[in-house]
Structures are given as C-alpha cells and as structure tokens.
Amino acid sequence: MNRPNLLIFFLTLLLFVGCGQQQDVRVIKLGHGLGVSHPVHEALIYLSQLTEEKSEGKLQIKVYPNQQLGTERELMELLQIGSLGMTKVSSAVMEGFAPKLQVFSLPYLFKDDEHQDRILNGPIGKKLLLESEDYWLRGLTYYDAGKRSFYTKDAPIEHPDNLKGLKIRVMESNMASNMVKAFGGSPTPVSYGELYTALQQGIVDGAENNPPSLYTSRHYEVCKYYAINEHVALPDILVISTKVWNTLSYQEKVWLQEAADESAVYQQKIWQEAEIFALEEMEKAGVKITYPDQGDFRSAVELMFESLKENKPEIYTLYQEIQQSM
Question: What highest taxon heads this organism's lineage (predicted)?
C-alpha cells in the first residue's frame, strides 16, 4: 500500500472510531447554544450521565454547548439530515416545523405553574411533542424555560405604551412578532448569539427573556431595566433527529426516554433555584427590576385572540382546549 492510500486508510479508521460505534457503544452528539453556566446545560449534562448509567456505557450523549456546532436554526437543519443527533430548542423555533406549537407563544396562556405542568405532561403536551415528526424531528420532553419579560437599555417598561417606537428583539416566531406589535413595539429578529452586540450597538433597544438567560448571557451589562410582566411561558423542547431515533434499538429508546424524563424533573428544580439567584445577582449589579401590572399587558393582546379565531382556527381551538383545562 503506497503512502497516500495508507494515509487515507488511517484517516477513515480514525473517523470510524470517532463515531463511537466500536465495541457496541453508540454516541449521540447533542449541540445547543447556551453557555455552560446555564441551568439547561446542567440538565443536559445530567441527561448524559443518566443515559450512560442506564445503558452501562452502551449509549452515550456528548454535549456541545455555546453554539459550537451552529446556531439554533442550523442545529435543527443538522438534525433533519441526521448529521446531528439531538438539541435543545425553544418551542417558538419549532413553530416552523410544527405549526400547532404556536399555541405556546400565545401571551398569558397558562393560569399558573401547576396548570402549565398539567398541560405539558398530559395528553396535549405529549401529542405536541410528536407534531414535528414529518420534518424528521421528535420531541422527547419539555424543559422549563420560565416566563419571559422585557428588558431595555434606556427606560423601564411599566405599561405597554412604553414599548411604542422601541425595537425589541424577538425569536423567529410569527406569534412573538405579533405579540410585540400588539404591545406597540417593533419586533426585530436577531440571533441569540448576536444579541449582546446588537444591544450594544443600538440595533435593538431591548429584548425579552427569562431571568437565568438574561443573567448568563450578560445582557444585563447593557440593559439595566427589567420589567417582570411575564407575558409568555415558552417551554424548551429536547429534540432528537428521527433519522437517529429510528436507528436505535427498542432498549436504547427506553434508556434515552427515561433519562430525558428524569432530566426534565431535575432541570425544573435547578431552574427555580437559578431564577432566584439570577434576580439577586442582577440587582446587585445595578439592574432595576420592576413588576408592572399584568392587567395592562393582558388587555393589550386581546385583539390577538380575535384574529387567531378568524385566521388560525386550529390554533384557537387548541388554545380553548388548554384554557378549559384550568
């Protein structure tokens, strides 16, 4: 064998070994865009540990944080072609693959935390996890992503009128854009990884997110006003490529699903702790945290539901079903 062919042989051998299939060990790569201090990343590490323990090392998950493997949208595309195994994604981003998930982007959808848990862990939530299978994406479980509120650079948001004329960063979600418009703001889609710079440079005047994400992203260094109006409670979804899922044996699927469900319970616990810690630390850093009257914000989005009833009756029916389960 000549030298070039020998080199190709050894590179191919290394690639095969790197796939983790040797000695009956399967390795699934999981990429996401959050930092290593984020509670969701901690839950994903716990998921990896649980999976390895349950399978006695036969099934392993390798976690790549900080957009190492791409942006949220890019990771979804990699899942669709089977080049990546798993990711954590906001349900808002999933709307493009499973339109019924738009219901989670509706403002003030849930009465309280107990109502949200009952929906997500019940028949409605479990059915919605599988809505994206036609797009080669399968939801395994939900992670708590808290409630989203507005943070701004120059002045606090005490009333929807304060949002008029402001460019507010939103995710790539029609429902999120419509909500910000209903409040009077100008929705501006920006990649999460580029948001810090966009805030610094004045490309946007503010954004909306939960306390741990605001803290771990360090956006509070730029935005010193945080108005806890809790306009939407978007869950995160742990997603696996169906191309990868379908290659798993029955036992591997059981190990992975059990680990996912247990990691969700763990994640909810550490999320609550992370929220308290984030708010305390941001106050210490000089962030002015306010609690505006939610009634004003609820009133501002009432027309959204009338439009929903007319233009998206399927989503409106699902919304009613969730409301009736209070």
Answer: Bacteria
| Residue 146: CB atoms within 10 Å | 22
Helix (H) or strand (E) holding 187: strand 186-189
At 75, which CATH number? Answer: 3.40.190.170
Q: What is the torsional sign of CA 293, 155, 184, 312?
A: negative
- Residue 119 shares a structural domain with residue 58: yes
Are 170 and 21 part of one and the same domain?
A: no
Phi-psi region of 218 (alpha: psi -120 to 50; beta: other; left: phi over 0): left
Q: What is the pLDDT of residue 19?
A: 41
* pLDDT tens string 222-261: 999 999 999 999 999 999 999 999 999 999 999 999 999 9
Measured CA to CA, the distance from residue 220 to residue 223 in angstroms comes to 5
pTM for this predicted structure: 0.86
Last residue of a domain, one of 277, 293, 312: 277
Supply the range of the domain harboring residue 258.
17-145+234-277
pLDDT at 37: 87
The four Cα atoms 242, 244, 250, 253 give a dihedral, to 10 degrees, of -80
Number of domain units in the chain: 2
**Buried b / exposed e across 282-319, counting CB within 10 Å, b at 16+?**
beeeebebeebeeeebeebbeebeeebeeebeebbebb
Amino acid code (one letter) for 197: T
Strands 148-152 and 225-232, sheet pairing: antiparallel
- Is residue 8, in this structure, part of any structural domain at all? no
Distance CA(255)–CA(52), nearest Å, equals: 9
Q: What is the CA radius of gyration of the chain?
A: 21
| Cβ 59 vs Cβ 28: under 8 Å | yes
